[in-house]
Each structure stands twice: as C-alpha cells, then as structure tokens.
Amino acid sequence: MNWIKTENNKKINALEIPTISIEQMRSDLKEMKLRPVGFFGKQEFENVRLYVTLADDKQGKLYISSVLFTPDIKSYNSFTQDISQLHIFEREFYEEFKIEPKNHPWLKPLRKNQDEYPFFTMQGEDVHEVAVGPIHAGVIEPGHFRFMCQGEKVYNLEIMLGYQYKGIEDLFLKNPDNRLAESVCGDSVIAHNMAYSQVMEALSDTKIPERAQIIRRIALELERMAVHIGDMGAIAGDMAYLMGASIFGTTRTLVINTMLEITGSRFGRGLINTGGVNFDIDFEMSDKIRNVLDEVIKIVEKTTKTMLKSSSCISRMERTGTVSTETAYALGAVGMAARSSGINLDSRFDFKDRWYEKCPWEEDFKFTGDVYSRFKLRYKEVKQSARFIDDLLEELKDYEDGLKVPVGNLIRNAFVVSITEGWRGEVVHTAITGANAELIRYKIKDASFNNWYMLAMAVRNNGISDFPLCNKSFNLSYCANDL
Q1: pTM over 0.90
Q2: d(CA 350, CA 338)
C-alpha cells in the first residue's frame, strides 16, 4: 500500500510510512483527489524526505506517504500543474531544501525574500504601481503589498511576507513548551496551544481527563467569538460605520474579559498545559459565562441587524472582494475564508470530535464570497459558538475527573498530526520522534498559510480604496505565516 491511513491526533509508527517514487506520488495525488494538509521535508543525513499528508474530510481520515530525494536529485516536475492547492506548499519546500519543482507557475521566495524580490509587473501608459508597507501606519505586523493599478482599479496584488521569519519550528525541537505554542500566533493562543498539547499527548500515549477536554473547547469557542466580534467591528470601522465599530469593540471586551476571569489572561495564556488544563470552570463561573454570553449575543444581534439595514453598509460589502468557489478551491482555502466562498470545511465536525457531535450545527449558509459573506458568516459563527459553549458547560456538570494528569515520556519513531479548528480555520501541528524518542521534526501550518492568496484574488478588479475593507474581512496573520 502506498499510503498509511490514520486519524486526527492518532499516533502511528514513522518507520511504517511508505516511501514511494516521485512518479507514484504524482499519480496517487491525481487519482486520490484528496486535500493536502501537510507537505514538508525532513533532512535525513544527505537525503531529504518529503512527507505528504492528505485529508479525506468526508470520512474524517488522513493519509500519509513520503518520497526520498537523494543528493543527486535536484528537481522534479511540479505537482501544482495538476493539483493547484499545492502551489504554496511547493514554494515552501523549495525555499527550505532547494529541490526545484520545475514548471511551477509562481516559484518565488515565500519567507526569505527581502532581497531583490521578483515582483510581477505590467506595461501600459495608464498602469502604475502602489507600494504599501512593510511599515504600516497602524499598530500591525510588517508585510509588503504591491498593487498594479490602472487608475483606481486593481489588476494584481502581490503580497510579500517573511519580515518576521523566526525559525519557530526549530525552536520546538530545542525546547518544546506550551508557552512557545501560545506564542506562535497571538490571536490564536488557544488553537495553537491545543494543537501542540494534543500532539505531545498522542506522542506520549497520555489520555487527559474529559473535564479538561471540555474546558479546552469552551476556551476555543470563546477565542472564536472574541476575534469574530472584533473583526466585525473592524469591518464596520473600515466602512466608516463608527457606531458598529465602537459597539462591536466593547462587546469583544466582554468576551475576552470572561477569558481573563477564567485564566488570568484575556487571551487564554496559561490555560492549556500538556496533560490537561490549569484552571477549572466551577458552577459559579459557568453561570457567569452564560450570563455574559447572553448579553453579548443580544448586543451582537441588535447591532448587526441595525447595521444591515443601512444601505450604505450593504453597498460597501456586497460584491466587494469576491472570491468564487472555484478560485477558493484552486487556492486550497480553509476555514472561514473557504466557507464564505462555498467550501464547507470545518475540522471540528469533519474529524468527528466527540464533544461537538451533540452541538447544534446549521449547514445552510447563503455564501456569496464577498465581504458581506465573510461578515455574515462571522455573525453566524458567533451565535453558534455561544450555543456550543452553553452545551459544553452543561456537559461539564457530568465530569469530575480532574483537570490534568502526568505526561509520560515520548515514544520513539512516532508520527502524529493534530488538526484544530481555530477561528481562521485549521491549525495543523505535525511532529515526528526519532530512535531516542526525541523530536526530530516539528511542522506547523496556520490557516493564514493557505488563505493569503484569497486576499490577493479578492482585490482584483476592485478599487484600491477597497483594499483595507477586503483585508479586514480576512484578517490574516503575518506571524503565523512567517514561521
């Protein structure tokens, strides 16, 4: 068999992962037609091993295989020609190991790119370039945006990141730690720490208490609510709808202050630890959370309905920054960005998380792929998360099995993939241990890695003044890309 089948958060023997030829890999990828969630290399003496992980979202299964590149192999024919979703993965693999995917349509530096970056250019009497960043007027992270315009109309946007490249995956090999996991991406503390903890627990055969599992998911949904509400306010602000910006901003504070009361941190730092959680949610805190979220939902519903009665707000969002289903699929979009364009991906449900199975889930969403769709989806997910939290708090009453357990030693020659649905989309942590049970490869993929090109496509044929609104409607992370 060319591929080993596994599941989310399940340990397999790394030595049992098949090694196939590059030609067989190409044939399998075309035949299997599954979604890539992992495509990364590992140095093995003079050789480089390429690991590929595919997700069968309908069945909740993962498939893993590998290709071994010996020192004499310097290139291969790009997979992107046949599987466009691999475009960004192949660029990353080439940048790290210098094995060229020949005929790749856009083989440019991904992170280590500040010197003589080959920007796309256009010719024409009315064509002009607009460069924005990497230093921005607001308190945001560095990134460079190069617009090719004719008048106000954007024909192409090229996004250059990498200004924060920090080698964080190598840091996990030197000193794996929950505090490091919390620092991968500051607005996704719970999502990344949860994925890291699940990896380490699977690698050590550690089963954490059910109570801790529930508390982790409550925190994950609080994080989703807080950021979505904040982003709704940011979208309102970029339309100059200042009442919405103000109300959503203060309402977000109610949610993160609830996290503060649980953990001592507005962003949930210190809550999740390998082996469980450090803070409990007792009956009194449960009632407080319910009361706060009831008030939050009332405010969000009233403000959203008022905002969507404004013809000026609707006109600014509808048909602005539209990304079609076909384009989103070709780019490999995930999470909220994918769902807003009609691709129904959500790892909470695709990979059969037992704690979400009883939660109310509404399949129907009238997607349009524009800013309006991304705003409405946030509104829907805020309400869903509040219901999920209410159900999870009810479940919590039935479990008194403690908050954490001791974590055993890592198991040698193990391979684990952990996928957690952060508010942007899937957060994927993959870890491999060696013969001495030490971490020998740690790979992270944030949803932003997949979705930055969604933003680039969204602004095409829009006015350049629409860029801030399009940008806020995705709210992608620079630091979670510059790993």
Answers
A1: yes
A2: 14
